[in-house]
Amino acid sequence: MVISFRTRRVCLVLCVLLSALTLVLQNLWIPEGSEEQLPGKPRASEALPQYGVRKLALRLETLSSQIQALKRDNIPDRLDSLAETLQLLQKDHESSMHSVQKDLAMVWEKLDTLLKRSLTGGDTPPRTPLTGMPDSEVCKIPNDPAFPLCAGKVEFLRAHWRSDPCYAHYGVDGGACSILAYLSDREDFCPSLPGRNISQGPDKTHPKEGKEEAVIRADLTPLLELIGTGRGPAVRFMQSRIERLAGRWARAGERIREKLHHKPQAQLKVLLHPGVLAGGAGERFGELAERGGPLGELVQWSDVATALFILGHKVTFSTTLPELHRVIGAPPGKGSCPIQVPLPFDLLYTDYHGLAQLQACMGLSFNQYRCRFRVLDSFGTEPAFNQGEYSRLHGYSTAWGSWELQPRQYMTMFPHSPDNSFMGFVSEELGQDLEEEIQEHKEPNVAVVYGKQDYMWQGKESYLEAISQVMKIHGTVYQETGSPPRIPGYVLNHGLLSQDQLLELLKRAKLFIGLGFPYEGPAPLEAIALGCVFLQPRFDPAHTPQNSAFYRGKPTTRQVRSQHPYAEDFIGKPYVWTVDMSNSTEVQEAVRTILHSQVRPFTPYEFTREGMLERVFAYISHQDFCSLTPQPWPPENTLLARLGSLGESCTTVCLQAALVCEPAHFQLLNKPDTFSSLGLNCSSTSVEVNHLLPAYNERAQRCSLQREGLLFSCAGSDNSHKRLCPCRRYQPGQVALCQGCL
Ligand SMILES: *[C@@H]1O[C@H](CO)[C@@H](O)[C@H](O)[C@H]1NC(C)=O
Ligand SMILES: *[C@@H]1O[C@H](CO)[C@@H](O)[C@H](O)[C@H]1NC(C)=O
Ligand SMILES: *[C@@H]1O[C@H](CO)[C@@H](O)[C@H](O)[C@H]1NC(C)=O
């Protein structure tokens, strides 16, 4: 028991240090409260000095609870995670020292004022000594070595319980009993009071244990009811989409039930919180939707909600901050207290805005439950941007990244960033009968421009002019009353159309014309599904965060080579033509060929209802970021290791082999044996923190492995590393899944 004894001593020293630090930090803690986040604005908290302190305090909390756990249960298991937290703490410590110094100065100032006030008999409440309290007999501060922080915490709350109404909400009234009850029931800092029998500890059970089975549903009426009415234009848009497609979803549900052969899935409680709609930003976003603004996110939110509901899960929907507070059980106040555990949701789908909102209202519980978050993130987040410290040190810092979730917890619109999960949405699908009808209604001369706002048309005159010599161009451009849109006179403009009207027009049309913006929206897929050919500009040079205002500051290094890379790479001819917009000869040749070709309506399987249900089912069954030892998925035998060339990312290396990069397999690859199995000689082998690893340096015969799991990256590339890439095969039309990994 020598080890255990030593551990205990180390614990005690650590605990004393920690309580001191925690106290200082809690004094400095200024919660963000309900700070509003606007789309496109960086998270304000990042820039404030308090942010670092807050993060440091969160780590300390984690550390102290780990130490407590260490003494209660299995020591060797806990030591690893303790060491990890200590490492993180050290990193945070470095970056936070500056802000701590600043804040300490502030505290001195405050103390000074307080001292002066108490000397002059000011308005500070009289300090009742704990022993003088009526309840002191029952509620003595326990001297339990398992709860070394208890006394300090009680002192802190006695002085500060009024600083946040959440303490009062949990019954704290300034008396020792109420404080001890709070610190034992809610925060785990003190031992339970005698006679009390509440086990409120965080819910550590695996979310899928002991659940009912999810049963595939056909009726979407309850979903429409729980989304509710009267929530503004954005929610109305989603409701009308769900309503319009309800019948087809139900049929897809039936097909997927057969396909799954009664594979069981536990019924999960799922929260959907589109943060972008919450608060004032939501109204502006909704208003934009009515003027031809971006609808892609709303399309995706509707479809994710519908898919989860059809699959039989319990869906809750929140679009405002008060609703969010209510449904996750946040106490009223500024976020100093933990939420009422256990969190009533197994999974929380949100977006970047929603993450900040969740962090503000979950307080300490945010970190505890982060493994349950899923972030809808259309443009993707690469690992180098996701890891806070690394991104700061290596120039990958952006307003959006640094949340340090598992990269696969970010879910994209298109499968462009394999480090993330491809969530997608559903495109229009036609039955066989409708397909015939469409072929009859096609007017070969009709071309429709993809661009609802006239600024998208500027500078595209010669391109459109070239097309207009072959076909009649129609527009659906939003029109301000009194000011005609700035578009060429030969265009037949229908004004902004409802979704139904737009689909009718596309059914008649032969060609759908991309102007280069918006990037990667749902519309081209819908046009192709209705039998149109999509013509789009090639970007040379590629658009990147360096040269494109739109991608600037996004947490990605993607090279976007056309308006819709998915359409170009995964669909291609005869459905998609990518041209040099400035070359009228090339444009006209393409349009003439399209005019004389017969193209049938087409929808890639992964964008059908069935395909999306299958994918969401697979993610829910297999993606597990909460267990310490999750079941490997996709199965380990699907790994195909590849060595890249200099300058190639693993995304590229795998795609070139008609495979896809599978980040779940990096761990399997990150071993010295891999180099020899690929026939590489290592004159030295190192383990480093670098998002380009594992990799091989040919000249020096240097083999390098990855130390930091969060930094495994399909996307990373540079000219001195040959990357070791974990590729796998994928189902045709369903890149997220491999054969037999459903
Ligand atoms: C505590 O509550 C649980 C169930 O709520 C009960 O089974 C248990 O007997 C109680 N323990 C005591 C000491 O009252
Ligand atoms: C324009 O396109 C045509 C046909 O594809 C090609 O032959 C020609 O070289 C291109 N012109 C320029 C300037 O790229
Ligand atoms: C590795 O080393 C062995 C023996 O030293 C040599 O025969 C082989 O050619 C080397 N392979 C490469 C790829 O350099």
Could you describe the 3D structure shown?
This protein is of the alpha/beta class and 742 residues long. The chain folds into four domains: 5-120, no CATH class; 127-201, no CATH class; 221-422, no CATH class; 432-603, Glycogen Phosphorylase B (Rossmann fold, 3-Layer(aba) Sandwich), CATH 3.40.50.2000. Strands 7, 8, 9, 10, 11, 12 and 13 form a seven-stranded mixed sheet that branches. The protein has a six-stranded parallel sheet with strand order 2-1-3-4-5-6. Strands 14, 15, 16, 17, 18 and 19 form a six-stranded mixed sheet that branches. A hairpin with a 4-residue loop joins strand 17 (695-697) and strand 18. The relative contact order is 0.08. Mean pLDDT is 83; it is low at 1-5, 26-51, 109-134 and 200-205. The structure holds 2-acetamido-2-deoxy-beta-D-glucopyranose (3 copies). Residues 583, 585-586, 589 line the site of one 2-acetamido-2-deoxy-beta-D-glucopyranose.
Q: Which molecules are bound besides the chains?
A: 2-acetamido-2-deoxy-beta-D-glucopyranose
* Percent range for β-strand residues: 5-15%
Helix % is 40-55%
Summarize model confidence as the mean pLDDT: 83
From the N-terminal CA to the C-terminal CA, the straight-line distance is 47 Å
Number of DSSP strand runs: 19
- Main sheet makeup: 7 strands, mixed
Helical run tally: 26
Helix/strand structural class? alpha/beta
Low-confidence stretches: 1-5, 26-51, 109-134, 200-205
Q: How many separate structural domains?
A: 4
The best one-word shape is globular
**What Rg, in angstroms, do the CA atoms define?**
29 Å
